[in-house]
Amino acid sequence: MKDDGDWFQQREQLADKEPERVGQEQRSSPSDVEEVRSAWLDWLHRAYMRRAKRTTALVGVTQVIILVLFVGLWEAAGRNRWIDPLLFSYPTKMFRQLWATMSDGSLWPHIGVTVSETIVGFVLGTLLGTLLAALLWWFPFVSRVADPYLVVLNSMPKVALGPIFIVCLGPGFLSIVAVTLSVTVIITTLNIYNQFREVDAGYIKVVRLFGAGRSQLFRSVILPASFPVIISTLKVNVGLAWIGVIVGEFLVAKLGLGYLIIYGFQVFNFTLVLSSLLVIAAVATVMYKAVSALERKLMTGWREQ
User: Where is the composition biased (Basic and acidic residues) (predicted)?
Assistant: First the structure.
């Protein structure tokens, strides 16, 4: 009987301690769950980053392999005369041409002129296009009047406008910049103006309920909501500016990379033509990367604000 009494006493003591132990477990369980959840998310993030790095590396390696195979096949085809080397040249011949023109300094003035024309056309095209889009949004009547003219100008081949600019502005820098603006301004205007019109009507109604005028509405809602599109238009305009400049130099220039292409065709020096195209691709890529870096910086600041 004594043993039975001791056994019942021990059970009562354990029963008294059980709620306290369970309470402690319940109090500690949320933190344990949070730690497990945090560790799981951290592992998922690391796995995702590793997979993303592998994918990026694989893309880069594939791009390099394709480029090497293309250049190697082109070189072999030119040297073995599988293709006409007079018409298609081949890479080593092009690089010798580039090295010669870079060494004697004759290439740099052409690069400088084309880059300066491109930068001017790019900056002016972006600014004027944004300003025109703002004016069209501000004055709906003007927008309705100008709409068919903008559509016609956008669809018109810009080469056809070149002779008009040459007659009005003379052969030279201004006419080339004008051709560039004819390419960049219309596209910029249409893209940004369409974004102005597509801003969420709910935001506009809320601001107007607080008595905001048209200028305050534009500054507080329309422009901030359209900022990502305005920034992304910069990258589009880089390529358009290069197209406009090269077209302008085809028509009128006596200096520039576009002039070198036309001159190479005229004297049947297709190595000069292809090497000039290679320089255009390289310089345009550098400008595009610079604008992309500027876009990332501006977008980071916009998100923080």
Answer: 13-24
